[in-house]
Specification:
Length: 68
C-alpha cells in the first residue's frame, strides 16, 4: 500500500520553486538590508505568504482542468 498520492510533474516543480524561494528568503544577509524602512527579509516573507497559495492554487486548478 502506498502512503502518498502520485504527484504531477507541474506540482513537483511548484513544490521545488516554493522551497527554493523560502530558502532564498531566509538568507541571513536579507535581515540587514532595508527597503522602504522595512528589512528585505520582511518583504520576502510577505511575498512568500502571497505567492505560495497563489502558485499552488494555480497548479491545482490546472491539474483539474487537464483531467476534465
Amino acid at each position: 500500500m502506498k502512503s502518498f498520492f502520485p504527484m504531477v510533474r507541474r506540482e513537483g516543480a511548484t513544490l521545488a520553486f516554493l522551497i527554493a524561494f523560502a530558502a532564498f528568503a531566509f538568507i541571513p544577509a536579507w535581515r540587514d538590508l532595508e527597503v522602504g524602512g522595512m528589512a528585505v527579509f520582511g518583504w520576502l516573507i510577505a511575498a512568500l505568504m502571497l505567492v505560495s497559495p497563489t502558485v499552488t492554487l494555480v497548479a491545482f486548478l490546472r491539474r483539474r482542468a487537464d483531467s476534465d
